[in-house]
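Long-time lurker, finally posting.

We've been working with DSBA-like thioredoxin domain-containing protein (Brachybacterium alimentarium) and I want a structural starting point before designing mutants. I don't trust myself to interpret raw outputs, so I'm hoping someone here can both generate the structure tokens and explain anything notable. Sequence follows.
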Amino acid sequence: MTDDDKTSSIPAPAEPLITVDVWTDVVCPWCYIGESRLHDAIAAEGLEDQVHVRAHSFELDPTAPTDTVRDNVAHLVAAKGMPEEKVREMEGQIQAMAQELDRAYVTDRPMANTRGVHRVMQAIGEAHGVDAATDFFMDLQRGYFTGSSDPFDADAVVARAVEAGLPEAAARAAHAGETHDAQVEADVREAVQMGARGVPFFLFNDKYTAPGALPLDAFRQALRQIIDEARAERAHS
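Top reply, 14 upvotes:
Generated this for you. Predicted structure of DSBA-like thioredoxin domain-containing protein:
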């Protein structure tokens, strides 16, 4: 038997049984909580090699300014008309939820328009696939909520895109709005057509939708049901 014969006789790894599409924004605190719960549920069910998570674009506040960065508290006070005390109370509550998940969460963060980040994610996805785009986006989001990255620093975002394999010129063009705006719109439109009014918004195996940051137990129950269905379907295929 030749080496080629040996290679061809090795079975290809099975495709994951569950695909989770998540519409998310880099500055969305409930996305950070929901995605953390999802990943904890996957680990608790022992399904790390059976779940494929794919990120999609959705802007939490498309009206946020593109030329001004202010802190998140001031942004919500101005955009939603909420009292500052109420905003800080809400941030403290989300921080407590994150701490329950053993996740860091800073309550004072920069805030501006996120469209440029979404365009860069779309450019990475087109060039290197959805997994590379998802890794880029989730890493940026985690860094935002842990205080280690600023998604409104264009040079920092471009540098991360280059690390993901995107040429610098392509990353800068996408961030500036010269490319990939239509792809962002298409992602948002797809979610809205399925009933999404905000994020996070989850789609399991192109069949079941789940809006919002579900509790950990709800994610675990959903994963158990879907994996059982998927295994039964694969056994009969």
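Before you design anything, note these points.
The mean pLDDT is 94.
The beta strands are 18-24, 51-57, 70-71, 110-111, 201-204, 208-211.
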